[in-house]
Amino acid sequence: MAIDAIMLNPADNVATAVQVLKAGQKADVRLGHDIKQVLIGEDIPYGHKIAVYSIRKGQDIIKYGEVIGRATQDILAGHHAHVQNIESLRGRGDLQKEA
Length: 99
Known about the structure:
Layout: E1 5-7, E2 14-17, E3 26-31, E4 34-39, E5 49-51, E6 60-63, E7 66-71, E8 80-81, E9 86-87
Parallel strand pairs: 1-3
Antiparallel strand pairs: 1-2, 2-5, 3-4, 5-8, 6-7, 7-9
């Protein structure tokens, strides 16, 4: 079975496309030995992130079990999660670390 995208941690809410994904396609997303099917809502380039679950505006984007950013708008499951709808939280001087 060909894998279309991969997640590395059960806490992740995005997966990485390991091939070009087309709108309307049912993509097989692998997490360990488990496979989850996600209906792709828009074309996703190779190597880019897709939302595996719907993500609300302001919600953390989690990849590799780590927060890598925050959604700047709602991202529907199966849609592209990238710079157009994610803001980075790393390296920003305006955010204070919580004590």
